[in-house]
Backbone:
């Protein structure tokens, strides 16, 4: 496995932790993660697109969006930001507007001239975690999610 591939880390039985070393400075990774124009180009697993309805990027603010699956299925999503420390971390709850599925913590750590992104998703129970792993392919989807971010960062850096 290359140092730049996504990796699943050991975690509690109700967590998913995925990390990837990105070949870009932390400020650029932060911008790609938080700017809805960039997010629309990479958010989600392979074959998915994302439409943002509203994005209020502040503690207490909401990001309401729909992920469109390759089979045409729409997946409504709602993120409520809990903590934002630029450019270090974002903590938020994640659900569909009806219920909260998990709490996510995303960390952006400088490693030389690169940035490590670590996503930690904490579910209320191990069963809830297992459901999204089995039903939605959450682990592979998370790896693809970070791979698509890496591809976008490569494109951005080429035009800079």
Residues:
């Amino acid at each position: 496995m290359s140092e730049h591939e996504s990796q699943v880390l050991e975690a509690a039985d109700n967590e998913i932790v995925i990390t990837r070393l990105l070949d870009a400075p932390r400020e650029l990774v932060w911008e790609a993660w938080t700017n809805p124009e960039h997010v629309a180009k990479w958010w989600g697993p392979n074959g998915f697109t994302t439409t943002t309805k509203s994005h209020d990027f502040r503690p207490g603010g909401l990001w309401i969006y729909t992920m469109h699956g390759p089979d045409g299925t729409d997946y409504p999503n709602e993120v409520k930001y809990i903590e934002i420390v630029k450019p270090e971390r974002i903590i938020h709850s994640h659900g569909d507007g009806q219920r909260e599925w998990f709490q996510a913590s995303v960390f952006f750590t400088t490693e030389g001239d690169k940035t490590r992104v670590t996503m930690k998703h904490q579910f209320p129970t191990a069963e809830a975690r297992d459901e999204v792993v089995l039903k939605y392919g959450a682990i592979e989807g998370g790896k693809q999610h970070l791979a698509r971010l890496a591809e976008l960062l490569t494109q951005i850096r080429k035009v800079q």
Summary: Residues 138-159 form the longest helix (22 residues). The chain has four helices and eight strands.
